[in-house]
Structures are given as structure tokens and as C-alpha cells.
Specification:
With 294 residues, the protein is α/β, with parallel strands linked by helices. It has a domain at 86-274. The protein is 47% helix and 17% strand. It is built from twelve helices and nine strands. It has helices spanning 2-15, 20-37, 39-52, 58-77, 79-84, 87-93, 102-105, 120-129, 145-155, 171-178, 211-218, 253-270, and strands spanning 94-98, 110-113, 135-139, 161-165, 182-185, 196-201, 204-209, 222-230, 237-241. The strands form two sheets. The protein has a seven-stranded mixed β-sheet with strand order 1-9-8-2-5-3-4, with helices on both faces. Strands 6-7 form a two-stranded antiparallel ribbon. Helix 2 packs across helix 4. The longest helix has 20 residues, at 58-77. The two termini are 30 Å apart.
């Protein structure tokens, strides 16, 4: 497996030197092939889109998922750009909207809520290049140690924080936040029933983490939503640091989870093809309810 990882890393190191427009075209082409070959992920994405956008007819859903695969594989191939390109090139490609400096000015620790759009790694880079606060985030450790080491190295290349494996204790992250670090939080994946509530996501009950609300309340955090978007062709990327929520968290973590989902829905409607549809967002079902993925 490590041989494949080494070849993949070598490919990323070769691709990042190309003009972004060339990388973008290649990513779309690979995505078109993957749409045909990656049957399982294609079916998951089509099912998710059918659940979330029942008003679309089958042809419209297929077009949306085909487009999604193009953006998804763009994001994967352009990971080398984020990991290896000079800082000056990255700063020229990343457009910032909103208050990127909130975290470094705030007397309270800041939680960035960053939903799973395909450009979220660009948002991670932006939090390190355009503000000075140390950043902590959680990541899914990879089974291949070579890939795992390269991902960690890429995400920590600017020496501006730490990534904590999801399988490990949350205490090191909590201690870092108490020292003033910002928290780059990805709140919208299905991790089962533990510390989750079933709240609507596009009118479908979805196991949604209560931890963002509970952590923000316990640590007296400012919560600022952040959304990343990949722009067409060689135009680069846009990262929007939106106004901090002044009434979140509340004393009702389940209500907070529902509100967070509604906000994510709004962002998806703005840019539907770039949301991570290949994830089984509705994998966990309420007791007694059948799987939505057959």
C-alpha cells in the first residue's frame, strides 16, 4: 500500500508546478473517469442528492453528481499545490472575504465552523497564511502510514498549530484552546449515535454532532462560520470568513445542531456541486429505521 502512496505523492509533487488552469482541467478529466468507475461512491452521491433535492429529476441529479466528481478530483489533485507551492503563489490564488483576523484579535478562543465542501483544505491554509493565531484541528488518521505522514506534514507545513487524530483523546485539543488556540472544526459528518442527535438536514433526520455546541459553551468560544469555494479554471479559490454568530451556542445543544444544519443547507444551495456528496451523511438511522443506502 505504501508503494501506491509514494507514487501518489510523487504525482502531487509533479503536478503542483503546473499552471492552475492545467491542474483544473486534469482534475475534471479524472473526475469524469472516476464518475464512471467509482460505482459505490457514485451511488452514494446520487442517493444523497435525491434525498436532499427531491425536486430534481434523475437527469438533473446525474448532472449535479457528475459536476461534483469534477470538483472533488480537482480538490484532490490540487492538494499538492496547498502542500508544496511557495507561500507567495498561494496568497495570490486565495481570495479572502470577511474578517479573517477575528481569531487573532479575540480575547475569547474562536471556533471556525467549516462544513465539508471540497475546498475545505484551502480554508485550512487560509487560517494559517492570513492570521497569526495558532490553529488546532481534528483529522481522520489514514491506514497507510506514508499517506498519513504526508497529510500531517502538508497540513502543518507553516508551523502554525497541530492536527489531532479523531481516535485520540480530545484533552490535548481542549488544553490548546484554553491556551488561546483557534479550533478549525468540521461539524457535518455522520460519526454514529454517540454525542449526536437526529435533527433535520434537508428535511431528512441526520445524526448531527452535539459536540460543537457543547464545546463552544464549555470553553466560552466565539463561533465564526467559514466556507471555502474552488473557483472555475485557473481563477483560484475563495474563502469566506462570515460574521460570528452572536446567539450560538445556546443552552440547547440539539436546537443548536438543527440551526447549524440549516445554515449548512443555505451554503449548499449556493454551491451545490462542491459539497461532499460521496460521504454517507445519512448512514446512521433512528432506531428501527432501515438504511437509506440499500
Amino acid at each position: 500500500m505504501s508503494v501506491g502512496a509514494k507514487l501518489g505523492i510523487a504525482m502531487l509533487r509533479a503536478l503542483y508546478r503546473m499552471p492552475l488552469g492545467v491542474q483544473a482541467a486534469l482534475g475534471r478529466a479524472v473526475g469524469a473517469v472516476a464518475y464512471r468507475l467509482a460505482g459505490s461512491r457514485r451511488r452514494i452521491a446520487l442517493r444523497n442528492v435525491a434525498l436532499c433535492f427531491p425536486h430534481l429529476d434523475p437527469a438533473e441529479r446525474e448532472r449535479l453528481v457528475r459536476e461534483h466528481f469534477g470538483w472533488l478530483f480537482r480538490s484532490l489533485l490540487e492538494r499538492g499545490l496547498l502542500w508544496y507551492a511557495p507561500v507567495e503563489r498561494l496568497k495570490a490564488l486565495i481570495q479572502i472575504e470577511g474578517d479573517v483576523g477575528l481569531a487573532e484579535r479575540s480575547e475569547r478562543p474562536v471556533m471556525w465552523l467549516v462544513p465539508h465542501f471540497v475546498g475545505l483544505d484551502v480554508a485550512g491554509v487560509a487560517t494559517q497564511l492570513f492570521q497569526k493565531r495558532q490553529v488546532g484541528s481534528i483529522y481522520q488518521a489514514q491506514s497507510d502510514p506514508v499517506w498519513d505522514a504526508e497529510i500531517r506534514k502538508g497540513r502543518l507545513r507553516f508551523n502554525r498549530g497541530e492536527v489531532f487524530a479523531r481516535s485520540e483523546s480530545a484533552l490535548p485539543l481542549v488544553r490548546a484552546i484554553r491556551r488561546g488556540w483557534a479550533f478549525f472544526n468540521l461539524p457535518d459528518m455522520d460519526f454514529g449515535r454517540r454525542e449526536a442527535a437526529f435533527v433535520p438536514f434537508f428535511d431528512v433526520p441526520a445524526a448531527t454532532l452535539l459536540a460543537p455546541s457543547k464545546m463552544a459553551r464549555a470553553l466560552n468560544m466565539v463561533v465564526q462560520p467559514v466556507v471555502a469555494e474552488i473557483l472555475p479554471g485557473g481563477q483560484g479559490y475563495k474563502v469566506k470568513f462570515l460574521p460570528a454568530w452572536d446567539d450560538w451556542p445556546s443552552d440547547d445543544a440539539e436546537a443548536d445542531a438543527a440551526r447549524m444544519n440549516r445554515w449548512i443547507e443555505e451554503q449548499i444551495r449556493h454551491c451545490p456541486a462542491q459539497y461532499l456528496w460521496v460521504h454517507k451523511r445519512f448512514k446512521t438511522r433512528p432506531e428501527g429505521e432501515a438504511s437509506l443506502y440499500g
